[in-house]
Design goal:
single chain, mainly alpha, two-stranded antiparallel ribbon, about 60% helix, globular
Length: about 350
């Protein structure tokens, strides 16, 4: 296992206050985008009413069970858009940049940020190609993690001997490549084949099985792996699996009951189940990203101080470690230094 190149860490990388500022900045930026879009549309068109696309009867296969254009005449599914603001992806990228995490981790973090931006635009417009891109990017993220860290499942080979095959990186690459191609094909073909509401069902059919399998694997590794140093990551990713699995279960309920999942008399048609799905996904994806960072910088490319820290009175986890370097300046000697403990963080590892 090669050590990551490291440099002297910047003091006070993150504190409770800086975390809150980051959250406010991310949410504020995207709210400003929505406000500008709404005001521009009203200014150009005079705020004329837009056609309402009803779930299951509109003929738009990616339409979700949320009344359209009820909050803004420029935004198709307002509440779905609001809850796909890329908070999880944004925070992961900030953590990654501040600690200069290795490129495999950063690739997953940036991919997470992109997929949430795709979802943000998709719910705003109901544009079919963006929904297809969203689904493909979500599963590419998942399969990339399998490619990079799937070998850890070999720890369970004493219980399930065939898992020993996952030690073969080329084998994992073939599975991941075929998986991405299959997902892309499903995103293009399956919604129309299923008919009205087909896009929502496609999300469930494509995402739920891998999520449930990965969740079971995480729990199995938590209790069955002999690597105590990775136990905090397995615990964290088990919680990620819980939230993502809950989102998939709620997705099935939403697909089954359709518009009954909407509180039409509240907040101009509040899609309570879909909002719950998005919130659960955001939590799960964030915890999943932190877990990958821990696995990488404890097992694959170790760094000193790699651990989870808890901000906001022990309610909000982040990952921290000694700061790495992405490039080296000529004539400058890089020194190792453990990143300082975060201000206001509880020194507790899950």
């Amino acid at each position: 296992m090669a050590k990551s190149p490291t440099a002297e860490a910047v003091p006070d990388v993150m504190s409770n206050l800086s975390l809150v500022k980051m959250i406010v900045a991310i949410v504020g930026f995207y709210l400003a985008v929505l406000l500008v879009l709404h005001c521009t549309y009203v200014w150009v068109t005079g705020g004329e009413n837009r056609e309402h696309f009803d779930f299951m009867t509109s003929g738009m296969v990616w339409d979700h069970p949320e009344p359209n254009f009820t909050v803004s005449s420029a935004i198709t599914e307002f509440w779905s858009v609001l809850t796909t603001i890329p908070l999880a992806g944004g925070l992961l990228c900030i953590i990654g940049f501040q600690y200069r995490l290795d490129w495999p981790v950063m690739a997953v973090f940036v991919g997470t940020l992109l997929m949430y931006n795709f979802a943000f635009v998709a719910h705003m417009t109901l544009w079919k190609p963006v929904f297809q891109l969203t689904l493909t990017s979500v599963m590419t993220n998942c399969l990339s993690a399998f490619l990079l860290y799937g070998a850890l499942a070999c720890d369970l080979s004493r219980f399930v001997p065939p898992l020993e095959r996952l030690d073969c990186e080329k084998c994992r690459a073939k599975v991941a490549g075929v998986g991405v191609a299959a997902v892309a094909a499903a995103a293009v073909r399956l919604p129309d084949a299923l008919g009205p509401g087909g896009g929502v069902w496609t999300l469930f059919y494509v995402q739920a099985p891998p999520v449930w399998i990965a969740s079971l694997a995480a729990v199995a590794l938590k209790f069955g792996s002999h690597r105590d140093n990775l136990r905090p990551a397995y615990n964290m990713v088990s919680w990620a699996g819980f939230f993502l699995s809950a989102a998939m279960f709620l997705s099935y309920i939403e697909c089954t009951i359709g518009t009954e999942a909407v509180l039409f008399g509240t907040l101009r048609g509040f899609p309570i189940i879909h909002v719950a799905i998005h919130v659960s996904e955001q939590i799960g994806i964030y915890l999943y990203g932190l877990s990958l960072a821990f696995l990488h910088h404890v097992n694959t490319s170790p760094r000193r101080g790699a651990s989870f820290r808890w901000l906001l009175h022990g309610t909000f986890p982040i990952f921290c470690c000694e700061q790495g370097v992405w490039w080296e300046s000529a004539g400058v000697t890089q020194t190792k230094a453990e990143a300082p403990f975060l201000t206001g963080a509880a020194a507790v590892s899950k």
